[in-house]
Amino acid sequence: MRKVPLVESLQIVGRGSLNWFRGRPIVVSFEVTDSCNCYCKHCDHGGPRDESGLMRPSDYRRYMKTLKPCVVQVSGGEPLLRNDLVEIVRSIQSDSGLPYTILVSNWALMTEERYLTLREAGIDQFSVSLDFPDDRHDIFRGHPGLYDHLSTLVPRLASLGHDDIVLNSCITSENVAEISAMADKAHEWGVNICYSSYSARRTGCRDYMLRSPGQLELLNRELDRVEARRDASNWIVNSPSTMAATRRYFENSAAPGCTAGYRFLVVTSDGALQPCSMQFKRYALEDRETMVREFTRTNTCDECYVSIRSYLDKSFPQLLWENVSSFLSFESR
């Protein structure tokens, strides 16, 4: 994964440090739509939804001025369903180049033209969902032909040399045996890979959790294989500490100590603040401190270890060190 150049690195470190000590969120996830063109087995978003209340692109600037995150995720639903996505991304960006912006998408609607246009608008990282290293991905996502589309488009765009594409594989009981094979696929396509963890809280279905000793043994064996392939290019995006916490999450079926609503939060497609995508207490933008007081400080939920949380459940020195050493550069572009 490419390192962020000097000026941007200093801006991210400065904004992130200031937010940490002032109690502002480090990461904000904008769910720009609730609609999706997939029907994934592990997700509660699927198919079309009422979009009459969607925020307009210009609305996002007010949220950025108030929340001032140093990292933003643009997600959904499926964000590429929005024809005005480029305008949303431009509205999120500031003249300084912040925030570092990640597009989370299934890429069914991605084309080379959209990729390049979104890069120009301000997307720094493209997170592409991959559940299996073959056409079983289509079955799991309810979208025939999706894997063939990815297997053609992803390597072609990777060959442009921007090093900004990351496969995101959510670990479930169905694909735990494919963890290292998906790393192989990322390497074959010339892109990076990041692992996240299934949570039953999203759908209420515990079938995709790892529960048996055999599944946990397989998880550890597969992650060991992935860890053995780390190198200086950081193509395996998860830090070693995040990988270790992922193992503990599945071993314990829990991960206590969540800071949702404080270190990170979600902005829904109609403009409400939520602590996370699986906690549906809604607050107005002006009421974030109320959310922290009412939810975060009393939160006992331990049912997930999703990516946005996994990057932030660390002490400030550890968070700073891991990001500076792995992804931020103090060399000029």
Structure report:
It is a single chain. The chain is α/β, with parallel strands linked by helices. It has one domain: Aldolase class I (TIM Barrel). Helices cover 37% and strands 12% of the residues. The protein has twelve helices and eight strands. The chain has helices spanning 6-22, 60-67, 85-92, 112-121, 136-141, 146-158, 179-189, 213-227, 240-252, 288-294, 307-310, 316-326; strands at 27-31, 71-75, 100-105, 125-129, 165-171, 192-197, 264-267, 273-274. Strands 6-5-4-3-2-1-7-8 form an eight-stranded mixed sheet. Helix 2 links the parallel strand 1 and strand 2 (71-75). Helix 8 (213-227) runs antiparallel to helix 9. The chain is globular, with a radius of gyration of 19 Å. It starts with 5 loop residues before the first helix and ends in a 7-residue tail after the last helix. The mean pLDDT is 94.
Main attributes?
333 residues, 8 strands, 12 helices, alpha/beta, TIM Barrel
Structural topology:
Blueprint: H1 6-22, E1 27-31, H2 60-67, E2 71-75, H3 85-92, E3 100-105, H4 112-121, E4 125-129, H5 136-141, H6 146-158, E5 165-171, H7 179-189, E6 192-197, H8 213-227, H9 240-252, E7 264-267, E8 273-274, H10 288-294, H11 307-310, H12 316-326
Parallel strand pairs: 1-2, 1-7, 2-3, 3-4, 4-5, 5-6
Antiparallel strand pairs: 7-8
